[in-house]
Amino acid sequence: MTAKEIQNQSVIALKAICVFTILLGLFYPALVTALGQVLFPRQAQGSLIVDNGRVRGSALIGQFFHGDKYFWGRPSATSPDPYNSASSSGSNWGPNNPALWSAVKDRVSFYQKNNPGLSGIPVDLVTASGSGLDPDISPKAAFFQVKRVAHARGMSEAAVRKLVQSYIQKRQWGFLGEPRVNVLLLNLSLDRSAALKLGRIF
Fold first, then answer.
1. What is the Rg, in whole angstroms, of the alpha carbon atoms belonging to the chain?
2. Which of 19, 123, 145, 198 is most buried, by the most CB atoms less than 10 A from its CB?
């Protein structure tokens, strides 16, 4: 290959880099962003949950709740802070990993201590999801916590159970995924009910 041919090939390569940088680095992201904002504005903004003008969180990322008056979500495997999307990664352990059994044993003891008299702890309450950010729990996991939450809030178990029932999301399109309960939405509803009971705006 002659020097002139090498020069021509280099010019062509530089032109291709410039063209694809503009197309794929500028125009394509701008187009996808614009379509997302028009067709799926809520999802494009992060599926934020807004209550009385305040952003409470995202429907896609779990939050850490403590205290008996709240429903607790799946354990988070992110560190050092739970449900930290910046440190999310593939965190699921295999069934033969001793660390998994040690963590599950500790979580079982924790739930037995905080939910006396109850047995059959749902598996999603003692195992973390792969991402460590799961915002949902199974209906069974929510109902398991009804007694504790009702007692802490001075509510009847029937009232809390009815509230849980109203927040069960069915399978998408009737066949994808499993029925689930968004923990943040459920806890916000509990706080809102308590605020109304006290005669103040949440």
1. 24
2. 145
